[in-house]
Design a protein that fits this description.
The chain has two domains: about 90 residues, no CATH class; about 160 residues, Rossmann fold (3-Layer(aba) Sandwich), CATH 3.40.50.10140. It is about 55% helix and about 15% strand. It is built from eleven helices and seven strands. It has a five-stranded parallel beta sheet. The protein has a two-stranded antiparallel sheet with strand order 1-2. The protein is elongated, with a radius of gyration of 25 Å.
Length: about 260
């Protein structure tokens, strides 16, 4: 799934760079700038971008539309403003590895399994960098009286995906239960619960009603995750490599239990 806003903004900017030209001319001993080359095709692209960003960036959409519709009156001023607005949209929507993040909620008691999941499935399998993945804080480091919720929510909001790794340790942890509740309270996130082999589906709790969890060793569910991540982040699938990493991870988990 590509970034439609970014692609359309790039298309508008490319059209502008290629077909819209500034030139300088002396008029009554004054150096004036003029714009030539803008046409209805450019106007159509800009208005299409306005429609696309109207919900996410209503103010920017309004300003681009104003400059577009008033373009013929003072082309130099409006063209300059449009270029600046296009550059701003491109800046806001530009794909950035530091923004692409997965939040993993887990019990510190399950660190070995989580490390294996991160290494085999997300990094070696999908190609993510370690910086793309945020694991919840070491629960033993949270001091009595500290409000850990702000830190958890702040990092959840930065991520696209929230994976809840539910084990017996997870169920027994008050911190993990709070994380899971926060995950379901934040809008606009893809929330995926995975259960460990040592816990039954019926023991998961309210998640069994809200969304059926997937078994962390269910290869078909791991395949679904891989395919979704590839589509979401425009990753080139490499099923041969991924299947090897997946098989290694599943074998590792099965041996652990």
């Amino acid at each position: 799934m590509g970034n439609k806003i970014y692609q359309l903004a790039i298309e508008c900017k490319s059209f502008s760079d290629k077909y819209v030209k500034y030139f300088q001319q002396m008029v009554a001993n004054r150096s004036l700038f003029f714009v030539v080359g803008a046409n209805k095709s450019f106007e159509g692209l800009l208005l299409s971008l306005c429609d696309t960003i109207s919900e996410k960036y209503p103010y920017i959409a309004t300003k681009i539309k104003e400059h577009t519709l008033q373009y013929d009156r003072m082309p130099v001023i409006h063209q300059s403003a449009i270029d600046e607005l296009l550059n701003y949209v491109i800046y806001l929507e530009k794909p950035n590895d530091s923004v692409r993040k997965i939040f993993i909620s887990h019990s510190s008691e399950d660190e070995v399994i989580i490390d294996g999941f991160i290494e085999k499935i997300l990094m070696l399998g999908c190609g993510f960098k370690r910086a793309d993945i945020f694991c919840t804080l070491d629960h033993t480091a949270i001091r009595t009286g500290d409000d850990f919720r702000n830190e958890i929510i702040k990092n959840m909001k930065r991520c696209d995906y929230i994976l809840c790794m539910i084990s017996d340790n997870y169920r027994k942890s008050e911190v993990c239960q709070n994380e899971m509740g926060a995950a379901w309270a934040i809008e606009g996130k893809r929330r995926l619960p995975f259960k460990f082999p040592n816990i039954a589906f019926k023991e998961i709790g309210f998640l069994n009603v809200v969304k059926q969890a997937a078994d962390i060793i269910d290869k078909s569910k791991l395949d679904e995750l891989y395919e979704e991540l590839c589509n979401c982040y425009d990753l080139e699938p490499d099923w041969k490599n991924y299947n090897k990493q997946k098989d290694d991870f599943v074998e590792f988990v099965c041996n652990h239990f």
